[in-house]
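Forum: Protein Structure Q&A
Topic: Joint prediction for protein chains with partners

I've read a bunch of threads here and the consensus seems to be that you should model interacting components together rather than docking separate models afterwards. I'd like to see that in practice. Below is the full input, 1060 residues plus whatever partners are listed. Could one of the regulars post the assembled result?
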Amino acid sequence: MPSLALTDLRSGIVVLPADAAQPPLKLVVPPGKVASQPYGVAHLSDGRLAFADRANHRVVAIGLDGADFASFGTLGSGVGELRFPSGVATGPGDRIYVADTGNHRIVAVDSMSADGWESYGIKGGPTGDDPLAIGRFAEPIAVVADAAGVIVADPGAARVVRLSTLDDDGWSATAAGEVRGPAALALRPNGAIVVADLIARQLAFLTTPSDGVTETFADPLLAGPMAVAAVSDERLIVCVVPLGALVVVDRSSGVWSTFADRSLEKLGVRRPTSICLLP
Amino acid sequence: MTTSLRVLTYNVQMRSWAMEVGAQGSLTPYTSVEKRAKTIAARILTSPQQYDVLCFQEVFDEDGRDALVTALEGAYPHSIRKSDADGMAVVTEIAFGVAAFSAVVPGGAALAIVAGAIGTLGLVFGTNKFEDSGLMLFSKLPFDNIPVPQDLRDATEARGISLPASIPATAFEMFSESGGDDAFAAKGVLYARLLRGDGRPIHLLTSHTQADTTALVAAHAVTRRIQLEQAFNLLSKMAGNVRESEVLLCGDLNVDGVKHRDGYGAEWTALFDKAGSHFTEDLLDAWTREQCPGEIAPGRTLLAEDFDRGITAQVERLDYAVRSRGPSTDRLLLQHMCIAYDVATSGPAPTAYTSDHSPVRIDLDVDRPFASVLTAEPLPVDASGNATSIRPGADATASGLLVEGQMHWYRIQERGAYNIQLTEGAPRVQLHVYTADNLSAPVIPFTTLDDAGPLDNAGQTRFALPTAPFYLRVSLPDRRGEAHYGLRVHRFGGTGPRDAIPLLRGITEFGEANTSGPHSNDDPSTPFNEFDSVWYIAAFDTEPDGSLHVTSTVLVSSETRAFGVLVLGRAPGGGFERMDERRADAEVTATASYDRPLTGYILVRREGRNFKASTFQVTLRSDISYLYGNPANPASHAGKLAQLFCRDETNGTFGSEWGSDDIQVNVSVNGRTRVHIPNSDDLEFDDDARRDLPQVDLVRYTGAAEFELVELDDLSPVDRASVLIPSFDALHSGDAAIEGNASGILVQFTVIFDPADDEDDDDDGIYDLTVTVSPEPPRHA
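Posted by a regular:
Agreed with the consensus. Here's the joint model:
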């Protein structure tokens, strides 16, 4: 198990060392408190962690030693403003993507100084009159990014969307019924998208959203997957809420299997919202 | 040492994050549990009730559990903080850390006890129980002890574990049967034998049995029956002879115990009213059998037909005190069982939501005459000792001694207007007045007489009691020492403004004038003729800003055709003004219209000079109705908080209900907004969420009031839904009424977003509003 960073509504930002015998590290965010509603943690190339400070309508970056604090965002819907952000991801060139949940949009910035601000999306979802609903998000809650663009989990619209750029071009979304409650996303090194489906209580795998889900995996230990990270093409780490545990999902000879790695409750983590791998 | 015992049982609805996220499929931060736990604990610790034992159910959230422990462990040193599938953990007296062991103690009682910290991953994953039992117990009374058998001590000693000579008499047994979502929790029954102040034991159990879904009430009756039999078997093991032991089983039993128009439900009857059932023959439902409506027995009187139905959750009575028939001597008596409003609500400000159940207070003390509702002493009695009534203008008195938490209940047979006060003993001794239909919330006086001036003592109160019998509870809440008390009950006679009899709306008063001479004299300083009148008083209430025009009507009828009526109004600080006047006839109707608040005086005036005609009927009606939602407001007629319950979230795309409904509330009258509650964390709704609406404190309306919900984040085009709330008179006999009486009814309305044309379940969001509708204006606080 590699080192992990984890957001928790109780303990804030928690870093789990690779050595399970080592105690977890809980980060303190200025002005001296644990983050009250952290979501969507991501790792920046400068070594800091970035996460969505949902209650304060901002994105925060902080070093593992608690130093180098930075943030951007205030409550609102304009440039430089966010409303209950819930997801953060980094892409090529350290571009930062934010699921600006309350504004039903995706925001991209070049750095923590919020320069190069771009946003895309308006409130909405598929309807009988507009089944594709291109450019509309109901409740975008998680993002991951790669060289091909950004992928968005929108449980409010019960779909996963891939964007090449922050405009209508390259829009690709799952069809109705493919996923039910996408709570978290991960990217395997081979480019496949992993969807933690909280409602369907399973993992779903896909490459191009509009092509649909190619594979699913359900298991008693995966009842309630809340966060997911990909260690390799063959190994995933899933945060399972009812169990209060980190569950490792391995693939061997084409067959998925699970084992419980450690209890989050024992680490003081009771309301986990996201995880990311640390180098 | 006191023999009083006060127990609080409370389903605190502390569902865990895992339950909320897993079951609701929502990522909305669920952060209120710790706040609610702290609020509940603070209310308990500051309550004048000084609870001895607290039994909590549905404490699944670990942060909530920690908050309760942190706040309560100082005052309640003996506790069972967790009971799980693998046994019981953290019994405070157990100072050793060992794994589970089983013991067979002398007498054959079997125990399964786990102490210390348990819960390795292996254990957790070895079961499908994601959650523990949710049961917690806090006590000021110590646990009784059970000796640990020597052979067991020897056996564990050989493994390097030293056991003490005795262990607390506690046990937990997980239910063998459970279903639905309950199957993921280690539901069960928790037992503790506690030593009371007089050294006698009480066998205390608490449980939270199988829940039904909102849509399928009683669907799991068979499962509950099996679970309750399991609880009885555990009790039998621990107590021996259940029938003759002192037993209290309390908690959320999920059996609806409300008596409906067609009687009790089949599940309740099979348990609590059927030969052969342990819960009928050895145990009893204390609410029904010991308080309300009571069993027929010598010296006991059945309460009125509209007795308090004891609702503890939504429209059901789910939270119980189940007691044994008890020992033949010094059995504990149920002095009072009621909603613990000291814990459910606090202070005059809008109260914080704490749970979807009401907390229940169970007040026990050694059996004495007149110590319960059911055995209340009639007041007054005639020379033969039979209950009689107090004549208008007359007094009834009583006195007594109370010791260490005792109560003495009095029963008054006849409805009417009374001044009721303690002449000795206050403030240590307390007096509360209850009507049969609400044994939890005391009656608030109609007026403190400030408006008409005091009678002969300060602090007198004017109670208007439209139903009888009603009850006076005289109590010494303090469990230390004793106190004498004196009680005086004066019945008003209507001989002048200060002796005026309160008129409640819609309640016909059977009036009586003196026949030996004029009932009242004329006041020569006024331009009106008040001679020989029976005075009544009523609040002519409306909006203070003049925006609501109200009409009240007085009807007087008499067979003798001797009575007319004079209606006067008086503004605060002003003089009397004539509003209407009618000469005597068989039926007389007078009208008062007003758009500013007045105190109304209705003088039923006898015409002629022989003073022979004596009886008449008088009725007051108004076209104004009221919504009340905050019982913590002393002026309110609400017996319960207004609440909004989400049966079904509004739909998002493709029927997805992901995320919470962001609800905003508006209440308007004649197009004018009277209450606006903006959306906040307190108005975020998932399925089965319930939120208090104390902001609907007081709404005056004529015609109908509109209650509107706005779903601020709804993706569908239909994001508003509303319901019209008719007048009290229109509602009183309708199906919307849940409970109540002529002065206020709790009504429930369903608010549906985008209702479907057919009966299929494809409506877009369904909410239930529960609120009190009353014809009565705010009380004189």
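Chain A touches chain B through 46 residues (CB under 8 Å).
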